Amino acid sequence: MRGLDARPRHESASRALPTADVLRLLESTRSAPATVEIHGEPWIGKTRLLHQVLEAARGQGWAVAHAAAGPLASAAPYQLFSDAFEEALADRGEGVTSAVPAAQRATLSLLFPALAPTAASLPAPSPDSVPAGAVGMALRPLLRELAGERGQSGQSVQVGARGLVLALDDVHRADPASLDLLENLVRRPPATRLLILVAHRDRQSPLRLRGLLSSVPASRRIEVGPLPEQELTALLPKSTSRRLRRNLLGRAGGNPGLFLALSASPDAYERTTTPDVSGLAPFTRFLDEFRAVSDDGWLVAQSAAILGERFTLQEMPSVAALPADRLAAAFAELLREDIVRPGEVTGSYRFRHPVLCATAYHTTGEEWRLAAHSAAAQLVRLPGPCAHVAPEATANRAPGAGQVRSGLLTGDSCRALGDEAGLYGQRVRTGKALVVAGRPKEALEVLDRTARAGLTVPLLARAEAAEWRARAQRLLGRHALAESVLMTVRAEMAADPEALALVDLAWLAAALERGCPPSGATLPSLRWAVRHDDALTRAYAWALLGAWDTDWGRTEQAEFRLGDTAGLLDGIDDTTLIGRLDALYWLGRGLARLEQDEEAARHFERGLGIAAAHDLNYLVPQFATGLAEVCLRLGRVDLAVESGRRADRAAHRIGGDCLMAEAGAGLSRAAWVSGDQATARDAAQRAADRTEAWREPWADRVRLSLLETTYDLDDQGLRKRLMSMGAVRRAAALPVVSLVPAVGEVLARLESESRLESEQGGPDTEAGRWAAVAEEAAGRLRLPGATGLALLARAHHHQAADPLKAAVFASSAVVALTRAGRPLDVVRAHLAAATAWHDIDSSVARSQFGQARALLDGYGAHGYLEHTDTLATQGPRQQSADARLTRLSGREREISVLVSDGYTNQQIARALQLSHKTVETHLGRIFRKLDVGSRAQVATSIGRASRIPAPRSSGGPVPARGPDRTA
Description:
Blueprint (H helix, E strand, L loop, with lengths): L18 H9 L6 E6 L6 H14 L3 E6 L10 H14 L9 H10 L20 H15 L17 E6 L6 H12 L6 E7 L6 H9 L3 E5 L5 H5 L8 H11 L3 H9 L16 H7 L7 H13 L2 E3 L3 H5 L3 H13 L3 E3 L5 E4 L2 H9 L3 H12 L22 H4 L14 H19 L3 H8 L11 H17 L3 H12 L6 H18 L9 H7 L4 H18 L2 H16 L3 H4 L4 H12 L3 H17 L6 H15 L2 H18 L2 H18 L2 H15 L5 H17 L2 H9 L2 H5 L8 H18 L7 H17 L2 H15 L4 H18 L2 H15 L4 H15 L5 H13 L6 H5 L4 H11 L4 H8 L3 H15 L4 H8 L25
Parallel strand pairs: 1-4, 1-5, 2-3, 3-4
Antiparallel strand pairs: 6-8, 7-8
């Protein structure tokens, strides 16, 4: 401990307090009694620290009195002190009270039942009628006795103990009389060696307690702060996976008590399943947080948990069903007990931690929970204005979740069909509302009960339930499970074309999100949907089919379908679009992959505005991630970063790995381009963590996206980790053709630059393979951006072996990417050209760098500007001898080694079984590539084969070197 002065002390809960610090605490009471305040967040380790001091004090021969305050409603006056001294007084009995004047024994007997026999003959006043001053006066002699001193006639006699430690825990819950007595003792302590330890929670402590502890000059403070990650992870078994470890660290926030609770049941506090009776055990440890609230407070806490971790007061009456005055009083209890706190948005509230929300939620009954969810689903929301809706159209807007289509068409498929069907429909509507609100785990609890066989409900209702179950699984990244849910019910839908189309469209959406576009012809049910009379139904089906075409590289067909879709959706007002707002997402995604970025951005912005205005939280991450991607390609860096952050926040609220990984990868790239490397590293790390447990195409897509960013960040550790996950190995079989040119270009670049760094010369076969993959896909797509990326991949391929050819391909990529309207990709092509020209003609290289800078002006791409300046200043290879060596072919490397070792041309020809003329030709190329003019300079440039493998003879012996080493 760094000195016990008035400054807050941040001490880790699981670290042992040094013995010397404890001794100093005890020694500080020699001149006068001392008070030490221990405070911090709940579960941070205050009680643990308190007990550590008590154990050390006992070891030093001090007397100890300890108690923790309980719920205020059940506490008697002075209950905290009564509990603290009960054990000590019971052990020492009447002998302790001999120092207490007889007139004060009756007062003490009210606090301490153990003293009652000694005061039986004295009148016993009521505890409520005894002021704290009188109790304090009666208590002082008792404290001196327990501390080992008896004050008589000014003399002090040691009777055993070296002093007294009075430890009071959870003082924020203490009854008013105990607080009065504490204030009396702190402000007018007895003349003895006394150490008072007060542990409490700041937020739950009454103002008078906080004011008391801060105003007493002798009071010292120990603030228990978060535990470092290294010490928290040491508490876990070594077999704990990296993903679970990072997940627990993120959820615990450095709080050791919370960390240990979460690690004991890592999945219990996520609302993924409805626990059975034994499954409630993980939540009992947190029920203590609610013990001080009334029945109304408990009901309001459970109602808030139904609404989610964040809610508003306006939503509470419909779920809690309490009169306004009781609701207000109950909610005030939750605030006072720090169970809920004000949210970031004015008027909103949130649980202090998600585990409290999960505890309140899972301790409700299933029947009540379903009824409460149904009530919550009927809430009338008053969302903020939407930029795409005229003001007069938004005045009396219906709830957003209620307007989302239950099927392809409007209508309630379970109306007037009896109790069983009515309950089924109620569950579907409730589950749908939870999905729309971005709460898929809770939605599955409700929707999974619709999967039981033997239910007599219409086929459209079954299809609707399956669609929303699959949608919830998709939000959580479980696309294969979503497809399985839909295929399980598909066989039942043959008699109802609308139900069959609904299932098939949901299945197609799951497959496209997963990254596995189905092969084969369009299903007949989808052809039924695209011919439907309802414009929104047609637009949704056309958008999905257009996105399917783009993934397979059917460019002309995709342009036709998406063009019709855009016309349909532009003619539909925003309020109607709520019914199938994801049609706008699929349209935007398809247009983005057709390189129509301006149009894609327009549709993404419109969809994001509608989703935000109508609380359609389940679509916000996808719209924001798509908008960030196209804005980055268009050079709108600031908007890309803003959208990336918005997607990241929305994805974390939903909690799905796929959404969080995709949003994190997009934010990481945008942040690097903007020059914010800290955010880029953090987002990349979090995105990689989210993909670690997945071997799905979407996870590989995220990893491949992260590879380029980690390379630019020079984060070798994360790059190696991503490479170890096998995404590069599986990239050659990437089924989404429209993504292949970009993937091929990135991998060709990484292979080429890695080869340069490792100083391997000769043709770059791996980079060439990826360049060929990109060229093949670009040939199918016939789009300028894809062609430009394929040309850039070929430039990377030739960078080491033939820089002139690399420069030609890079210049061609500049032209193609300029046509595609991708300014930042054009910059990358200029940088590739500058790298190639650097050792051929430095003036041309400087010109390419200048063009890159000119393009970057005004885009806010500070990361690219720094990267460009670094390359221009240091040179692509920093002109090192090792880097120059990478320009040589294998045969040229062999000859250069022999030249550096002093061989003549004739000796080299004999050693390698080449003609004298061939050796001279190779030497000319070596001189040109190394930019040297003599054999001595070759030797100087490469050293004496210190980093180059020795040449292998083609069969003949290597001649001994004579004294003559000139050509």
